[in-house]
Amino acid sequence: MQSTLSCAEESRAAEEMLAGTFKPTDTFFLIECSLADEGGWRHDTVKSAAKTGEFAGILRHLSALPRMKILFVRRPSRNDRHVFIARTNQAQPQLFQTQLTEYAELLSLDMEGLAAGDRPVINGRSMTEVDELYAICTNGRHDPCCAVYGAPVYQQLVAHAGEDRVWQTTHLGGHRLAATLLAFPQGVAYGHIDPVDAEAIVTNHRAGYLLTHKYRGRSAYAGHRLDNAAHQAVGAAEALIRELARKYRIDELQLHDVQRMEDGEQRVHFVDVRGAAYTAAVRTSLSLPRQTSCGEPPKPIPCHEVALYAKS
Asked: Does a structural domain hold residue 260?
């Protein structure tokens, strides 16, 4: 029988576990554009823009970088050409910005230098480093839940962080977890955000802390080259370790490695700044089919069972 709840309502009613629902990305490109000349943001905005039109060649150029994600961003009543690049590693997460005259300038971006860890350079100009940005998914044409839940959260984030630091964005993944949010430069992913959460997210992020009860995971493990399954297991493990060890500072834990056991269990090893080691055992299975996006057929989703395996 078809559910009468939206995908986000169903996920919230089921109290779905948020940790371990975010997929790996090492580098984010955020491009300010409402695509007004092409009918606005669409169901699958980035894939559509990559096929034809002004951005096709540009997005192909940016896609040469491994494990990257492209987002279009916007602010109401503004129509500039800001571009942000976030490098979300554990050791030194960085966020850069510039403003373009033409989007075609992105074709001059030094991709080899970017891959090597250099400061991004466009048309010979180094991008400026900034310390804070929040991207909230509001793309209702991808899933109505993103607009219903995302728009009021966007307004509250602006009230607490300021308009220049908060952007509406295209699909972040996981519409059933709306409102979904990324906090940069660390790439901390949150889900099931409500307007009342905005102040706590901004206040804690500025102080270097994260909120574990809304935490989906991070895009911070570039050097480990984890596949989707391992990356999501790390997110689930990190949330539990942080709760049990009361380690809430973003930089307080570092991923050491992930071991896949013969029985499929994944053992995730973290160390803290004092050298203490923490290991969590993660078992992942598939749920019964459930609504993952409004209007689409139900399908199974990964479910994690996490236990603290060892502390030393």
From this structure: no
With a CB cutoff of 8 Å and minimum separation 6, the contacts of 104 are 54, 58
Q: How many domains are there within the chain?
A: 1
Residue 218 structural domain: 1-227
Would you say residue 201 lies in a domain?
A: yes
CATH of residue 144's domain is 3.40.30.10
Distance of alpha carbon 101 from alpha carbon 46, whole angstroms: 21
Tokens encoding 48: 């559509």
Give a yes or no: residue 195 inside a domain: yes
Cα 238 from Cα 156, distance rounded (Å): 28
Task: List per-residue pLDDT tens for the chain, 312 residues long.
Answer: 456 899 999 999 999 999 999 988 889 999 999 988 787 888 888 888 888 888 999 999 999 898 899 999 999 878 899 999 999 987 889 999 999 999 999 999 999 999 888 999 998 899 999 999 999 999 988 899 999 999 999 999 999 999 999 999 998 988 899 999 999 999 999 999 999 999 999 999 999 999 999 999 998 786 677 888 899 999 999 999 999 999 999 999 999 999 999 999 999 999 998 999 999 999 999 999 999 999 889 999 999 999 987 666
